[in-house]
Amino acid sequence: MGIYILKNYDSVKSQNFYETNKFKNPFNDLNSAIIDSFTIYKSEEEVKDPINLQEEYLNVNIKNNAQGYNNRLNVINRYPNIKYIIEDTSEDRLNTNIEDDLNEETISNLKNDSDFYLILNIENKKNVLESADSNFTKEQLKNIINNDSFNYRNTENKNLKISYFVPKSFIYEDEISLGKENYNKLKSKALVEKAILLSAVLVTLTILALIYLNIQRKDKNKDKGILERLYNKIYIEFQTVILCIALILIISIAYESLKEPVYTILLGIAMIGTYYLMAFTYGSIIEVKELGIKEFFRRKSLIYKIINWVKKIVRRIVEEVFLIKSTGIKISIFLILSFMFMISMLSLRGSSDFITLILVIYILTYIISVISYVVKSANYLNKIVVGSFKIANGDLNYVIDEGGKGILKELSHNINNMKSGLKDSIDSEIKSERMKTELITNVSHDLKTPLTSIITYVDLIKNEDLTKEERMDYIKVLERKSERLKILIEDLFEASKAASGEVELNIEKVDITSLLKQALAEFEEKIKESSLDFKINLPKEKLYIMVDGKKTWRILENQISNALKYSLENTRVYINIEDIDNKVVITIKNISAFEIDFNEDEILERFKRGDKSRNTEGSGLGLAISNNLTKLQGGDFRVSVDGDLFKVIIEFPKV
Question: The HAMP domain covers which part of the protein (predicted)?
Answer without folding.
Answer: 390-427
